[in-house]
Write a structure and sequence with these properties.
alpha/beta, 3 domains, Alpha-Beta Plaits, 8-stranded mixed barrel, 23 helices, TIM Barrel, 576 residues
Amino acid sequence: MPLALRVTLTAIVWSVAIATHLMLSVAAGGAIVLVSLLAIAATAWLWGGAVGLAVGVAVGAAEGDLIRTQLAIGALPELVRAGHLFVPVTFGLIGLALGSTSTLRRQIRVHRDASDRAQYDVLTGLLNRSTFEARLEEWMRTAAADRPPMFAVLFVDLDRFKFVNDTFGHDVGDHLLRSIARTLRDNVRDEDIVARVGGDEFVIALRGLRDRETAAVIAEKLVKLLSAPFDVDGRAITVSASIGIAVYPRDGESVTALTKSADYAMYAVKSGGKNAFNFSTAEMRVSQTRRLDLERALRNALHDNELELVYQPQVSLDDGRLVGLEALLRWNSRELGLVSPTEFIPIAEEAGLIVPIGHWLLREACFQIRTWQAYGFADLKVAVNVSTLQFRQPEFLKQVTEAVADSRIDPAMLEIEITESVLIDQFELAVQTLRRLDRMGVRTALDDFGTGYSSLAYLQRLPIGTLKIDRSFIAGLTLSPTGQSGSVVPIIDAMTAMGRKLGKTIVAEGVETEAQARYLAQIGVDRAQGYLYSKPLTAAKADALLRGLVRAGSAAKRPSSRPVTSNSDAIVLMRD
């Protein structure tokens, strides 16, 4: 209740009490009026019976000299008979009544505020998740009465909100969320439901739809509205939104199933480029269910020892010697079976699991190198793939240093492979990290060369020793007996010439035919790996291969021996 209104109501009550008292009092002097006004002010703030009683005692004392002359307990009957307790009791009862009313009112207000907090999002004023789900359940119970019994759930996720928070701060982010909430609420009907269910996630339920196209029209409108600039404290801030749509009952007959379907559709929009909307499909739900199963199982894969490394040999195109191996990650899940790296590695990156997995891979490879170093393969190089996320971690260099030190290997036997994506946004940081690896003696390679964002200016500055031509180019290299070649030949020729001019070692991935190997050797490619030479080998088979080379006297341990060619016993060992 507003303070002015409280004071007014209190004044009315006290005025009645004072008027009654003045009519009954013999001495209606100014002191009584002053004390009564003080009582009004005190009660307006404190609303307590004790205050009323205390004021009454004071007034009664002023009239009858109660405190000075009649404090004795034995005089109480005389005081009652004389009427001297009328004033304090009257004031006390009035104060008690007002105080009780105020307490009750406060309790009602607290209960109402608690109820509001339980139903509404504090920041935006929209419904929260639990209230939204309760309303949606009610819709489902009464949907049979609708003609048709159809409604849609729109899952709205902002695309660039983290960038806004990181750049401008959380206060600006909160202001933006409130603006977006108003936009959503103002562009649906009163009977529709809008809720905030996460940091930058909202859901909208649209009731009474005649067809799916109505939901599409609304979603398209919201996509356009949310991609327009928002004025936040004088700044024009632009975000966009990805919206997934699920329709009841086709895409789910429970609240959980329906909202999951909308969520899956939203993720499909994210994967397809964002700033759009998409309807849920059965294929999409199967795919997302598979993804969630993979993520759940992958979280336990390290602990359950389900990950392993395999090693694919690299050979010199000049003389056919085995010069290195690439360590490749494999996952054989007890629950899901053998899972392709192309399927689980992107999930590991999205779920934040790639960093601990990459750390394990690095150490595992280093300790395997230690075994082969003991065989005498001082020039053998083992390449380890490092994700962009892992490479950018502050502790990455420390992890490499510790892995090399703990395994006691020659750093030159370890090669860190990165992709061109590490050069985006944080090029200078990438250069510094690569230079520190170089000072440590660890070699580096640029994987999937030709598929990313490299430029001559970048390559000149990068302390990288090896460029790996991506297998997609080698697959397009078709050679006929007359010497005619595929359309990728000029590209491969240019990449090879550029790499050699920059003093880089050139490696071709995915070599599968003798004709490809001959052509690559002719244009100056240094090394090759692929099924022509060997499929990826388990650690045990790779170990057996190297032991065989040592016995055959064709490895680096005996450099004076004849070279190992692609037709040699060593290559036969690899193919086996």
